[in-house]
Design a protein that fits this description.
This protein has 13 helices and 14 strands. The strands form four sheets. Strands 3, 4, 5, 6, 7, 8 and 10 form a seven-stranded mixed sheet that branches. A three-stranded mixed sheet has the order 11-13-14, with no helix packed on it. α6 links the parallel β5 and β6. The N terminus is likely disordered.
């Protein structure tokens, strides 16, 4: 290979090569080996292999690809796959417990860039495609997925496997059916519990329990603020175990740390002026809230105090507007971006992407290689790492014991 380098970009060729290199020497490399070697051989012959689109990352595959903040453990205790992987919140939690990821999938190209920068691996793309599913290895232990919530067609009212077809849950269920992992761990928004008057969750549980024949305890709403991050973030967790594992009882974790507040994750240094609100934007938020308050509504911006807990960070303006903080450390009020008006002198600013990363439990060593707009989206869509890890620990200790 010329200079031992290939250009790493975010497409499935890159996914094949990086997955092969991350699993080389194990049985989990088998699904990737033939195609990966073909791609690498083509590069050796100066065939200009496109091993990613849009990313300018270049890694020396031997061994710089593995010089990442979050490498797989050398002697893993278990294996897992990371579906709807986002930026790898599940992956960090599972690796912290001794697990090795043997397959990842995430369709968003910006999230793929972040995933590559932190784990040395490009996730495969659209998991609904058979060409993507074909690379999933056999015999992994745990399937992890933070799948989106979608309504099912319940025309036949059987509420079974086929009626989930066309939804992303169907693809998760299909992979469970084919691969039969020892356990799975699914995460979704709290609203799944009442989505379509509860029919959606009923269908999911029926498929997992009856069609796929897994032991699935009743799902539980877990709040991230109970596990060491100052964010009120409730999500529904669904876990299941293959019945031959003979696991008949599962207990979700008790809170481990409810003491954290915003001041614990606030930036240590003065924040750039670009995060401070303009006077016009500040005025708009105030007037918007007044209008809703006059109608008896609770909509509008919210200021999080230093000793307060953030509201759930979500994609879109609301996630930032309901998490305004007052930080009076700024002394240079010269705008660094184009704004209407001037920078407010009351200290109002939005949280930074790094603060959002901390709210989700990502270590400061986590690389943020994308622009702020993408970073906010990625952290807003992510799972809260400490809450995932506390729950996963209860799963792993059961399957390892068995």
């Amino acid at each position: 290979m010329k200079n031992n380098r290939v250009q790493i970009t975010t497409n499935d060729d890159s996914a094949i090569v990086t997955h092969y290199l991350q699993n080389k020497g194990t049985r989990f490399a088998f699904p990737f080996e033939k195609d990966a070697l073909s791609l690498l051989e083509a590069d050796k012959d100066n065939s200009n292999v496109d091993v990613v689109a849009e990313s300018e990352f270049q890694y020396n595959l031997f061994p710089e690809l593995f010089s990442v903040p979050f490498p797989a453990p050398d002697n893993p205790k278990f294996t897992f796959i990371d579906l709807f992987a986002g930026i790898g919140g599940f992956r960090i939690a599972m690796q912290n417990l001794g697990g090795k990821c043997v397959y990842s999938s995430e369709w968003d190209a910006q999230a793929q860039k972040t995933y590559l920068a932190n784990y040395g691996e490009v996730p495969f793309g659209d998991i609904t495609k058979e060409s993507t599913k074909q690379y999933i290895p056999d015999d992994f232990d745990v399937l992890c997925a933070g799948f989106p919530c979608q309504a099912f067609s319940l025309a036949g009212k059987r509420r079974g496997f086929e009626e989930t077809r066309g939804t992303l849950f169907f693809d998760v269920a299909e992979i469970i059916r084919r691969k039969r992992p020892k356990a799975f761990f699914l995460e979704n928004v709290k609203g799944l519990k009442i989505h379509d008057k509860g029919k959606t969750l009923d269908t999911i549980l029926n498929v997992l329990r009856n069609d796929l024949n897994y032991f699935v305890p009743d799902p539980e709403i877990v709040n991230a603020m109970n596990f060491g991050v100052p964010q009120h973030r409730e999500r529904i967790y669904i876990v299941g175990f293959r019945k031959d594992m003979k696991i008949k009882k599962f207990t979700y974790p008790e809170p481990t740390d409810t003491t954290k507040r915003f001041i614990d994750i606030r930036e240590k240094d003065v924040v750039s002026a670009k995060y401070y609100l303009s006077t016009q934007y500040q005025h708009t938020l105030i007037e918007h809230k007044k209008r809703h308050e006059s109608k008896g509504n609770g909509f509008g911006y919210e200021i999080i105090s230093e000793d307060g807990v953030a509201n759930a960070i979500v994609v879109g303006g609301m996630g930032r507007e309901r998490n305004i903080v007052i930080d009076d450390r700024l002394t240079d009020f010269t705008p660094v971006t184009n704004i209407k008006g001037e920078i407010n002198h009351d200290g109002w600013r939005r949280m930074t992407p790094r603060e959002w990363a901390r709210l989700q439990g990502f270590p400061d060593s986590f690389i943020i290689p994308v622009a702020d707009a993408s970073a906010y989206k990625q952290f807003g869509n992510s799972v809260a790492v400490p809450a995932i890890q506390a729950t996963a620990e209860q799963i792993i200790k059961r399957i390892i014991k068995k």
